[in-house]
Amino acid sequence: MANAAIETQPTLIDTHAHLQLEHFDADREEVIRRATEAGVAVIICVATDMASSRQAIVLAEKYPSVFAAVGIHPTDCGPAGDKDFFEIAELARHAKVVAIGEIGLDYYWKNVDPATQAAAFVRQLELAQKLGKPVIIHNREAGADILKILREARLIQLRGVFHCFSENTDYAEDVLALGCHISFTGNLTYKKSTLPAIAEKISLERLLLETDCPFMSPVPHRGKRNEPAFTVAVAEKLAILKNITLAEVCRHTSQNAAALFKLPNGL
Q1: Residue 76 lies inside a defined structural domain of this protein
Q2: Does the residue 188 lie in any domain?
Q3: 61, 166, 219, 256: most buried by Cβ count inside 10 Å?
Q4: Can you give the pLDDT at residue 156?
């Protein structure tokens, strides 16, 4: 399948990358070039705090294939005040900002209390609705509370994606019932992962692909720094699970991403 990916140059969209991190300072341009050569037509550079939100926009302005998401991650929201959220609102109006994220809840790390995380999450959900932007949701050991917040927020036409999905089938059904998409990263390819059985049951119309680079490298790249070009490996795994061609996976997931993030035609 790897050879087929190279020969057919499938159009892929990496819906979650952190290209602004220092991991890419030495070769960022080469990383983006390799992604293009692998068929990754679009990379969404996702923020976690104020600095990375600004940096994501700088990269989006510099590279045609890069778009940005701005927001404050749950583990970074502790010191965030009104000034920060006002700036996120201003940054979100940039022409190449396609989402608010990543936002959500994280109970694995204990540096920010749940109430503060929830307040930041709701505030950014409301901003996304006001601006008509989708949300990129981070969920780590906080699945029940995230669903509770989303249900109680009474958001009209909630649009978004649960990135780096790692829950069970029942949770996936709850996410889909909310109208959200589900995105898999390199975790789908891991030998002991339970995610393949879940991915098999989810309609292609609701799936997205991502790397979450520089983290979560897929097989056969585990142990290496992850990068957008490796989106192909996740797509190949999904093609095997769905018993369809790589081209079909690329077409469906890219159409889904283009529609969700309102990407320009022709990408």
Answers
A1: yes
A2: yes
A3: 256
A4: 66
Distance (Å, rounded) from C-alpha 265 to C-alpha 74? 33
Residue 135: give its domain's CATH number. Answer: 3.20.20.140
What order of strands is seen across the sheet that includes strand 12-17? 12-17, 40-46, 66-70, 97-106, 135-140, 160-162, 181-184, 207-209
Cα 141 to chain centroid, rounded = 18
Hey, what are 81's tokens? Answer: 């005040």
| Nearest CA among 88, 195, 174, 102 for reference residue 140 | 102
Domain-embedded: residue 59: yes
DSSP letter at 115 equals H
Cα–Cα distance, 196 to 199 (Å, whole number): 5
Mean pLDDT per block of 10 residues along the chain (267 residues) reads: 47 97 98 98 98 98 98 97 97 98 97 97 96 97 96 81 97 96 98 97 97 98 97 98 97 97 81
With vertex at residue 54, the alpha carbon angle to CA 92 and CA 79, rounded to the nearest 5 degrees, is: 90
CB of 35 within 8 A of CB of 65? yes
What is the chain's Cα-based Rg? 17
Residue ranges making up the domain that contains 112: 2-222+236-260
Among residues 176, 180, 168, 238, the alpha carbon closest in space to that of 209 is found at 238
Q: Look at residue 267 and tell me if it is in a domain.
A: no
Instruction: Return the H-helix or E-strand segment holding 40.
Output: strand 40-46
Round to whole Å and give the CA distance between 55 and 230: 22
Residue 147: predicted pLDDT: 96
Please give the model's pTM, rounded to 2 decimal places.
0.95
Q: Taking the C-alpha atoms of 162, 167, 169 and 171 in order, what is their torsion angle to the nearest 10 degrees?
A: -60
Q: What is the pLDDT of residue 4?
A: 40
